[in-house]
Amino acid sequence: MKLDFISRINGFMQTYSFNQESSTQVLPCLSPLPPEVIGDKSGNFIERFSFILAGSYHQPLNHIDVAKSLSMSHRHLHRKLRVAFGMNFSQILCRFRLNKALALFEQELQIAQICEKVGFSSSSYFTKCFRREFGVSPKQYQLQLNAAIYPTELNLLSKAS
């Protein structure tokens, strides 16, 4: 399974052309430092990491497999991520998944479905992370979003009850 993940990612990376805009498109929720500050001589660490994250965030993902696919040790990956984003791998992955979840709320999916689609293993952990990141529970966010999208329908429903 792990070998399959690494070979699949390496195959994608060989066919993908990296550029400076790709990291800002893939990781809009994170703002990395310039490659010179990170110590990235080739200038494509962020792009390669972004590509892996964007392609695999909905699956079980760990820093060791990502580090192997980037041809570095997991400790070196941790150091680069800490310098680039000021967060560790788990924090970056969680924030990325939560931002992907925000887009799914607009599709009017149930919270359990959103949780599953973005790769959280349990809805309680998803709720905990969501509340920590955005200050409201996923249900409260969903209700606020629905009130913004359908204000007249909700007013009619509240008056009828």
What does this structure look like?
This protein is mostly helical and 161 residues long. The chain is 71% helix and 0% strand. It is built from eleven helices and no strands. It has helices at residues 2-15, 20-26, 35-38, 45-56, 63-69, 74-85, 89-105, 111-117, 123-134, 138-149, 151-160. Helix 2 runs parallel beside helix 4 (45-56). The longest helix has 17 residues, at 89-105. The radius of gyration is 18 Å and the shape is elongated. The chain starts with a helix and ends with a helix. The model is unreliable at 5-26 (pLDDT under 50).
Briefly say what this structure is.
This protein has 161 residues and is mainly α. Helix content is 71%, strand content 0%. It starts with a helix and ends with a helix.
Spans where pLDDT lies below 50 across 5 or more residues: 5-26
Order of helices and strands: HHHHHHHHHHH
Instruction: Describe the global form.
Output: elongated
Instruction: Work out the number of β strands.
Output: 0
User: Structural class of the secondary structure composition?
Assistant: mainly alpha
The biggest beta sheet is recorded as: none
Distance between the termini: 53 Å
What proportion of the residues is helical, as a percent range?
Answer: over 70%
What is the arithmetic mean of pLDDT? 76
Number of alpha- plus pi-helical segments: 11
Query: What is the percentage of strand-forming residues?
Result: under 5%
* Rg from alpha-carbon coordinates: 18 Å
